[in-house]
Design goal:
The structure holds 2 protein chains of 2 kinds.
Chain A lengths: L10 E3 L10 H6 L1 H16 L8 H20 L9 H22 L2 H4 L1 H4 L8 H30 L13 H25 L4 H13 L15 H6 L2 H13 L6 H25 L2 H5 L1
Helix pairs in contact in A: 2-7, 3-4, 4-7, 4-8, 4-11, 7-8, 8-11, 8-12, 11-12
Chain B lengths: L1 E11 L7 H10 L16 E12 L4 E5 L6 H8 L7 E6 L3 E4 L12 H11 L4 H15 L14 H13 L5 E5 L7 H16 L4 E5 L3 H7 L2 E6 L2 E6 L1 H12 L5 E3 L12 E11 L12 E10 L8 H4 E10 L4 E6 L3 E2 L3 E9 L7 E11 L3 E14 L34
Parallel strand pairs in B: 3-7, 3-8, 5-6, 6-7
Antiparallel strand pairs in B: 1-2, 1-4, 8-9, 10-11, 11-12, 12-16, 13-14, 13-15, 13-17, 17-18
Helix pairs in contact in B: 3-4, 3-5, 4-5
The chains are: A mainly alpha, B alpha+beta.
Chain lengths: ~280, ~425
Amino acid sequence: MAKEKEWEWEWEIDPEYHWFKWELGAISRYKDLLFRLVRRDLLANYQQTVLGPFWILVQPVLTTLLYWIIFGRIVKVSTNGVPPLPFYLSGIICWNFFSDVLSGTMYTFITNAAIFSKVWFPRLLVPLSGILAHSLRLAIQLGLFILLYGYFYLRGQLPAPGIGWFMLPFVLLLTGLFGLGVGLILSVATAKYRDLDYSLQFILRLWMFASPVFYPAAIVPAGLVLWFSLNPLTPLIETFRALCFGPGVIPVVYSWIAVGTVLITLIVGIALFKRHETSLTDIV
Amino acid sequence: MIKVEGLSKYYRLGTQGAGRFREDVRHWWRGRPGPSSNGMPTTEAHIWALRDISFTIGEGEVVGFIGKNGAGKSTLLKIISRITRPTEGRIRGRGRIASLLEVGTGFHAELTGRENIFLNGHILGMTRQEIQSQFDEIVDFSGVETFLDTPVKRYSSGMYVRLAFAVAAHLMPEILIVDEVLAVGDAEFQQKCLRKMKDISGNKGRTVLFVSHNLQALSNLCQRVLILEKGRLADSGSPAAMIARYLREDCVQYLRQAYDDPSRAPGNEHIKIKRVELIPSYEGKEELIDVRTALRLELEFWYDPPGSTDLDSDRDLIVGIHLFTLGGECIFDVASPRTSLRKGLVGGSCLIPAHFLNDGSYYISIVFVSNTTRRLFYFESCLSFEVADHRENTAWYGKWMGYVRPDFKVQLENHNSFTHV
């Protein structure tokens, strides 16, 4: 024992969990894997389908047309004076980004169980690659939105794009991060409790109806506005629309509450995810 | 350099995961912690997969782990690879680790071979630069260059494994952890992998932790072997001594291996082992193999002849049986005549007569050769047995010399009468 010299250990594995060791350095070391996972996601999803990458556009276009027929023509829900097509498309783009990131993240441990049980890499890379892949889809859908916006602008039905457009990426970033945060929390839950799956799908569908996707926040009864606005998606979608189409009705304070909610959700999500990422391997 | 101190791992047994939400909520509602909290419930079925393991592995050392299934080898490698966390103890180390607990982790069936080389390489911890600089070597090693832009779902299982191992073989970590991955692929490719492993450990000075049932590979590659027994470290020492001890204590009579499901059976696309068995015809009342016991080797395997032609030479098969002492010396190598066989289940047998082997420990490997030259599969160390001594009419109990102990008659008689003058 005496001749054993003091080594400078580079790493240590012990039973304790360190709440705030997030290994962000490891993520940057594995950045090549991050981009490869994004690539895998996109290639594997679109190489096989008949429509290929066009599917990214087909889904929001068809949904927009459907909403236009049902909510615009039949049920006749107000769009607050905005032409219905860009109105619905803006809601659908925001909601899809949120719900795609969320549902992509919430099964992280289940869908990757085979890999997670065989090799170590920063597990957070998988949800991060998901949000990046969905951001690319989002960018393509935004292109469509801009074309549509341009058409209605030329017809004089929409105002010229203002300085507010530069804020759009931040709004969308918050939307995606919120999906990521909620998804991370749920990923721990779905791995632990398999019986949650159906209820979560159901809740996600209800959540869409509770968010101003195919109706404006302006038609929400005054008594419900407080509860309605605590859903961070409400100020986010409404801000997106206000930046494009003109002033909305959601007070600024709710936007700040939304920002706070998103950040807290994200931090809680990452902490929970990191807390359970190895112990869940023993269960799944 | 790795230092493992007092490592233990505890697993709960029984149903886990599914449907525990209600249960946990109920526990919480009643105000006491559910069974999933960190306290270790004594009532539940549990197992210590590892118990108080300590050892140190120096830089550049190549260490093998052996032990029966369930002895904790894989759990140990999983903890060192950071896949699962220990319950007690700690591991400290220096150097970048890459672990190879499976070949082809993360391969995506829809993607091309080229894409998968990068994907798999990154998952194993290689950077883009590292992969690119070795890309040609990887492709060359795998031998699938013509299919590089084909989705791997169209690959044969052999090609898939070769590509996967090729990526892994070009990992450049300071510490490499390998779990029983050499047991795949055909014999020729296995040899190639072994050479590569030897190159990695020997010439490049990497630290390697290696689990295998392939005792030949262990004794070839390792400088030191550790034996695990029921989660504890039973012994450590030179490969020869440890392998001898392992065979002596853990599988003295490994007389039978049988597999009902071809997908789980050892082998490859041409040969899948259904059963290998040694059936002794015991001499005395006890079930003890001694020098008087004849042993009948029986084997059954699924055969899928290589080559698509109906030429007899392609369907010809020779099965050879190699018998080794524990020390690794080959006592005999007998083979069947070349036999033309159709696809399907094939049976065979061989009799090792009584009064042939001397007392000692032996193991058997079986080789399958196609068309007299091409080795299809080598089922190494598949059976092992011990021959006990048996003597009659002698009061001498020293070790009987020799590997064989035939019952040749040695006769003595008087030829002349001598008289003392």
